[in-house]
Every structure is written in C-alpha cells, then in structure tokens.
Here is the input.
Amino acid sequence: MGFDIVRFVGEVDEEILCPICTGVLQDPVQAPVCEHAFCKGCILEWLLRQSTCPVDRLSVNVLQLRPVPRILKNLLNRLYIICENNTYGCQRVVKLDILDNHLAECEFNPKRPFPCEQGCGLIIPKDEHKDHNCVKELRELVHKQQQKINEMQQDMVNYRYEMTGIKEEMRVLKGYVRALRVCNPSVRAVTDDIERDEIERWSSSLPEARVTRWGGMISTPDDYLQNNIKQALIESGCPAHILDDLVKNCHERNWPSGLSSLETRQHNRRHYDRYICKRVPGKQAVIVLPCDNIMVSDDMMAEPGLIMIFAHGIE
Amino acid sequence: MNNIATQRIKREFKEVIKSEELAKCSIKVDLVGDSYTELKGEVAGPPDTPYEGGTFFLEIKVPETYPFNPPKVRFMTKIWHPNISSVTGAICLDILKDQWAAAMTLRTVLLSLQALMAAAEPDDPQDAVVAKQYKEFPEIFAKTASHWTNVYAGGPKKNIEFDSKIQRLIDMGIERDHACAALSSYNWDLERATEQLFS
Here is the structure.
C-alpha cells in the first residue's frame, strides 16, 4: 500500500498516486500495454481477483507486470516524506529513497528491538519494555527449553531401545552367517561377491581425478591427516569392511614394493600415469582401487586399494 | 476497516465534495456515523427523463476489502426502473458486480448510476415487471416512472388520474405504497390491480 499523501512536504502530483490505494506509489510496477502504474502490493492483491488493469480493464496478469521507467522512480525518490514515527516524536523529514535506511535506525520506532537493561539481556521491541518482566520472560524461556530437553531425552530413550534391538538382531545374524560358513564353503564366495559389488558401486560414484604433480605426494601422513581422510571416506559412502585397511594404505609403510621407498618411486615414476584415480571428495587425495586398475602390476598395487595424499595438484 | 479502504474512502469523499457535479447539485455523499463503512449517496434524476426533478437517496456500504471489491449500493428512494428492483432498491449494474475495477470511485459509481437512470437496459433487468412494461408500453412506463418520482423523490410532475386511482384503493383499505405498486404493475388497470390485491 502506498504512502499517505498527507505525509509529504509540498505538492504531490496526481500522476504519482496509485489508482488503487490513492497513496503515493510504493514499490511501483506498471501494466504492459496501457502503462498504468500501481503499488506492487496493491496490484498483486487486485490480480488475485481479476486479471485486468484496474483503470481501463485491459487484460493483465502478474507475469506481465513491468518495472516503472527510471524517470518515475527518480521523481518519487525526490519527494520529502515525514517519518512514520512522527507521532512517537521523530521530527525527521527524509527523501523517499532513504526512508528505509532511516526507519531501520529511527530511535523513535516503537518496534525497534532493544536489549533489556534490567539484567535479563533479552532483546525485545522498545514499546514492550514497560510491560516487560525479566523473571516472567526468563521463566517462559526456561520452560520452553525444559520442554525441548524432555523431548530430546524421550527421543534418546527410544533410540537406545531401538539400538539394543538392532544390536541383538545383528548378533543373531552374525551367528547364522558364521554357522553357514562353517557348514557351506560356497557361502564365503557369495559374501566375497557382495563385498566386491559394493566396492565397485562406491568407486563408480566417485569423481575421476587427475594428478598434475606427482612430486607433491605426502607419503608419511600424520594421524591427524589420516583421520581427516577417514572422515571424508565415510562421508563418501566407503564400504565399511575396507575402510580401515584403506586408510592404513595411505602411508608408505603399507605400500607395495614398487612404491615403498623414494628410490623405487623415482624408478617407477613413468608408471604413475597409468593409474586410474578417483578423488577423495573435498580432499587433495586420490584412491587407486584394484577394480579400476586391472592392468597394473602387483608390485604397484595393494589390497584393498591405495590412497595417495598430495599437497596440491589434484584436478 | 483496514487502512487502504479508509484512506480511499476519505479521499473519495473529498473528491465528491470538490467535484463540479456537486456544484451542479447532481451528486452528493454524506457520512452515516463516523466509521466510513457506510455512506449515504444522493443523485439527481437526469434531465429529459421521467426522473427529472427527483432526488434519489442511495445506501452505500463499503466492504472491508474495498477497493478490491465494489461497494454495495442500493436505492433507498423507491424508483420505477427496469434495472432497479421496485421492491428492494437492488441495482443491476455490471460495474457493481463483475465489471468492478479498483480504480473506480464513489464519484464514478454515482455518475454511472445517473447514466443508468437515463439509459435503461431492459434486456438485463433487475425488475421483470418494470422491464416488460418498458418494452411493451413505453408511454405508460414513462408516466409511471414520472409518477413514482413525484411521490417518492419529490419530482414536480403530479398525475391526477393516477392519484385518484390510488385514492380509490386506499379507500378500500389498501396501504398507499401497495396500491401504487399494484397499479403500476398492472399498467394502471384498476380492476386487475384490485383483483390481485384481494385475491
């Protein structure tokens, strides 16, 4: 809704009034063909009821509304308006274009949030300060928080209960699997298949990576770095049964003979480019999995895969 | 009432007061109470019509949702017109219904009503009896409308013949308004009006 015309200093031209609210245009838009201008709020409200221009009834819909010409905006911005907190004592008369800035910091705005000075520190609108009671408000706050805590505790009890159930089921299942393995050797092959599938699925979900600087390899990462990589692997959905072994394989002491020392690495450098690498999401590190690298010789590969961490140079 | 409706009505009220039509005594608006939700309108019967010389009062109710919805307007003064109910004063005018537009004002509504009085739309009637008479017996219609203007809106043209027929019915114990309505509906045929009133 537009600004009440009585708030303006000096003459206000009829042309800059909204035909709907008869106030001075606020946030104006115009109809496409007839170019009649309205406050955005007013015309949207009208178009909910009828898809016509309120002045000449030409067909208009919301999507056809256009911004008004710059010249009209400039005319509006040049007007001087009395602050809406005038009744609360604000004497300021500002140009329309800085009205919003002024209102945001107008000391007389009764709704301006203000911290309570009596000690509770809660931030409340200025006009509510006189009826404000620290003890009462804080009590309500405590009450609400207590409710939240109770809910969370209840949730926790439920989760614990569910967890116990799941653990028990897991124990029984493990027992079954163990028993099956003992009396039927082919079961081992089945589980191996499942695990391999799982690795392949994970691998195909990872983005391919290219190493531009093999020299930046960190072959002896510290625990912190290793942990960091482990977290990233977990988040990327790394199958649990290879997670720990894979993380161990980011250190040169677990690397195969072809990579285990600086000399052998220098020697085998030309083979590096044959590796098909996958990116550890968000890290300067790559995963080299046997399933992606069937052609690579055994002395350049380790089970269940290699992780190489770099200082830089991963694309 | 919300701000936008109040702001509009206040301005429109001023607009009518300042208008040249008011100066010519052809339209007028007054407040009823101090809430701006109800107003009393006044239009003069247009010249060269049976309504000439009459003053017609209107009840104007401004809805909460004004100006997104039209004001509710009704004739308080009884009038004989195809698009206005002779019983309730309800008006059949497109701009007061689906053809309302938010930029219309009290002034334009009153002027539209005045135009409607000058140019009836008998094919879109509010009062079927009046519309039928308008189409079939235009002379009787004009006389009847003129007579109603005289009786209810202070118009100048007295019709001695009609008055005496009404008086005959009053003498039989019929209320004046009922007598006038019945005679008007039966094209001033005293016998048929009587029959209808006593049946």
Q: What stands out?
A: The mean pLDDT of chain B is 89.
